[in-house]
Amino acid sequence: MSLTCNGAPLAWRKLAVLASILCVSTVQYAQAEEAVAAEAGEATTSELVEAPVVDNASAYSYTLKQLGAHYPMNLRGVEGSDSVTFDIRADQVVTGARLALDYTYSPALLSDLSQINLLVNNEVAASLALPTETAGVPQQSVIDIPPHLITEFNRLSLQLIGHYTMQCEDPLHSSLWAKISNASRLEIQVTPIALPDDLAKLPLPFFDPRDARLLELPFVFAVSPDNRTLEAAGAVSSWFGALASYRGAKFPVSLGELPAAGNAIVLLSGAGAVDGLTLPENAGPSLTLVSNPNDPFGKLLVLAGRDSEQLKQVALALVSGSQTLSGSSVQVNQVATLQPRKPYDAPNWLPSDRPVQLGELIEARQLNVAGYDPGTIKVAMRLPPDLFNWRQPGVPLHLKYRYTPQPVSTNSSLLVSISDKFLKSLPLPSIERLQADESLLAALQQDDSLVQETELLLPLDSMPLQSSLQLRFMYDYIKQGECRDIIIDNMRGVIEPDSTLDLSAYEHFIAMPNLGVFQSSGFPFTRLADLSETAVVMPEAAGAAEYSAYLTVLGRFGESTGHPATALTVAQAEDEEALKDRDLLVFAAGANQPLLQHWASHLPADIDGQQQRFELSDLVYRARNWISADAQANLRQTRSSLAVSGASASGYLTGFESPLASGRSVVVIAASNPDKLADVTAALIGGEDYEQSIQGSLAVVNGKRIASLLADEQYYVGELGWFRYLQWLLAHHLGWMLLLTALSVGLTSVLAFFSLRARARARLKD
After folding, report:
1. Cys-Cys link to 522, which of 278, 346, 418, 560 (CB 3.0-4.6 A)?
2. Phi and psi of 243, rounded to 5°?
3. What is the structure's pLDDT at 11?
């Protein structure tokens, strides 16, 4: 641990405390090294596979922002704290850790009585002195963390112990503050350990939910795979993509060669073999976990079958029943036909056919908070991308909540926000204000919390597809007077799990093409979570780069739906029967995709070597702020065409209506050469390196730059009721409205004329 006091004189008491902390930390660090060594030795003899002692320790780091502190930590009060979490992979042992801390603190703090504590799992790892000489100035400190404090699941907390006077003080005085930069970096040194060959541990070690980094998992084919083998690989990659979730996933591919280090998925069909990998004679479809011969700490998950059909059955067994597997190898005897998915029933998407309870979206314990200023309750929501929001008042939220009423308060409230956009403040009345309601007071006699209900409408047009419902209880801090101000932690707030959110009034209807919903949700392919109405068209003579792009995009689909692509079809351009009545995802690199020549009239772009052609609209002048709630306002149709030669762009994405079936969609992912397909798939995953997102109907990717060139909506997918569709059609086409009005007036006039004439004749006849 490194502490800097800049020569500031400290009281003897403080020096003694710091000296003891230094001494204890030194002893703890030595004990930690012994504990790690003992743990490794114990694991080697019990559960872990025996492995040689290695010198290949590695290190990685996270900023506090990457760990979840989206804003600088603001520590306030006599005992203010904030925390983040970090986890350690199951196949690693921590040998060292340190925190490079950037911080600032109040000049009013008393140096003898104030400090910043670093806690790991509620254990004090270090204390930082706060000398007056450096107050109010940004500081940096590197703090060593004893490794024995770090477990599999960890909470890193920073706590301010602050005092500004030796007399009675206000525990929430404005001078009691410290700010921790979220650019502070946690560095962790680890040593790998070898896990046993046990399928019961799947998805470990190929995916570890404790690892917050991007998942990079190689796939190995013995030879160039056929379509069924690619379908099997796509099911596995989408499964891992669903597991990786927000982390993102990419899947590099090699043919006939194992990776030099780490883990990999190996797919073997028939007599195919991979150099260095020895398996028992293939007696049928099997799933085997073995060590990587190139790395004693790496693992290989081998899917094998006599042919590609058996291989696909093994893949389906893995993604649908991995929880039932055990041992180092299993034979797959039978896989029952999976039930087909229904539209919009993806596990990750909010149900749109019924009200959904908040308890289905988040654990009940996370709906409970405590304290005067508790943290925000966040309920993650993923919306179906094609909800039709025209003339809809909003999404009904029936909110039930309980709270502890204060004796006296004026501003206590429950704040409701959507993705950091404030929506409404709900008052939390005090006991004083509840005196007039005898029933509420009687309820408080039996329970110290008060139950409230309210109805809210969430504005769908301001909710991103990946939204967060944010609920925060805020209580008044009532001053009692000098030497009587204390903070009693007896405030509680609960959001009832049976609170409901209802999307069932919304129909599914959206203008296409729309690459924005393709990037964020994989739509329209993910409308069915198993991709049963999707065909992937692979190019001729595809290689490792094309296969990697295909698996990475399938992983992206799995991240969206939370379900593996178990019913996907892979085909080539000449398989017309397989392409009919399906949404098509087309991959191309250079001139190896015949469909691009067949459909040249539909394509707004073409990259062939150094020859490039792009259609342009005025979207290029408004690429940062072009999306409107009105679909007609989003149109940026073709105004010009540009053809150039020279250094080509990395690649492009474009969408259009399928020439083979009305209402079906085509998305093309193309690059000038196979190696640049990785730039396009990386842009689909996105991240902080990208200033813009993919939008419109044509987006060009140049390295880390994305340019959306067109937003030419040509067709619609989804269904509306006939009356609502007629309303929408007339509202957007004035000519049809005038014509229908004229016809209605004419028809009414004719009916009135004949009715009146009949009545006149009847009267004259009488």
Report:
1. 560
2. -65, -40
3. 38
